[in-house]
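Question: does this match?
>
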Amino acid sequence: MKQETFLITKATTEDIPAILEMYRRRVLYNNAHGIPQWRLADVTWEAFSQLYTIDDYYVGKCNGEVVCGLFIVDVDELYWPDVDKGKYLYLHKICVDPAHAKKGYSDAMITYFKDKGRKEGYPEVRLDVREKKVKLREMYERNGFRLVTIGQFVPEFTTALYHYVYAWEQEKQLSNYDIEE
């Protein structure tokens, strides 16, 4: 049996065709299963380039093949307009190729995101998700994110804002100890 090697790295320009194909497959899969999320026009490099650069993108590769990815940035003017650039890290457009779904790659990418924020000294990391995306919201909550608020930031849908605060980890560790008096 062939051993699978999974690695998360910063994307390069050579990864762009595979990244775009992964998003295209995700959009087609979601549309075929009645799960609207993005339109094909939303997942072109021209569309991504309005807010992000290739340096913001991280890919998960299994045996060298792009199977998942996400953008990580230090500013989010749409959903967190009152927060200065560089105060927190934000996750955007997490995607797993439908051919590689249900293998734990989403959790691995979220863990990578949280670890990156911790290592770089951020007090917390943040993300947004459409309010009605129950499965995605459950995935983020399973990974320790807590709801901050739900709001109407764009006319088309309501959005749930989440954060993961590193101080919670310390509180959880402290609560695991019995205190004797």
Remarks:
- Helices lie at 16-32, 45-48, 105-119, 134-142, 167-175.
- The first strand starts at residue 6 and ends at 10.
- Residues 71 and 146 are 20 Å apart (CA to CA).
- The radius of gyration is 17 Å.
